[in-house]
Design brief:
235 residues; 2 domains; alpha+beta; Pdz3 Domain; two-stranded antiparallel ribbon; 35% helix; five-stranded antiparallel sheet; single chain; 4 helices
Amino acid sequence: MGRPMEADIHNPSVGGQAVNTASPVASSNGTSSREHILALMQRKEILEGEINALSAVLDTHGVNMQTPLTTFDGYPRDDIDVAQIRTTRARIIPLVNDLKALMGEIEKALHAHHAGPAGSSATAAPAAPSAQTAPPPTPVIEAVFAVVNIVFPSSPAEEAGLKPGDKVKRFGSVGALNHEKLAKVATEVRQHENRPISVLVSRAFGNGEQDLELTLTPRRDWGGQGTLGCHLLPL
């Protein structure tokens, strides 16, 4: 899965050409604005693919971004490839930062795109109030920010349909831009005990992935620890 580890993943390429991570100036022309947004979305998919590929490398070692790599007395663990894990983590961190910055660019570009027609019509005759139409809603950009590691039997997570390997894109009101290393997910769970939470996940199907909208209700009476019965790992 993904490209060999020795490849320069911090400068993703498409068709053999490096993808420029600097934002071009968006044109006031509607077509150019749409092309700009599509280019940003393409870069987003590339970055997500790189992050997912590197996260899979960590998965093969049974670790994540927070797993300790030393023993209790400070020596490197001898049961894992510490050097490769450190290298992989070092590559993931700037990619995640780039993805967050890129998603901010996408949101700005979408707002500018929808505001553009209104701003360019200053010289046109105002339309009658009854003829005005509401601007289209701004699409929500949802990127993977966590992966389901374990789901315990008979837990709220299992009842909701969560499965190990599911990639979380939205957890209630929490997403890739505000999860704060999953701290906001914990807050969301506490605030919704015995109340349903909408969870959007991406799940592998055949050679691709499919988004699924699940409903998870945190509760304590399921017979295990916690209120979810699953483990989430941040990406």
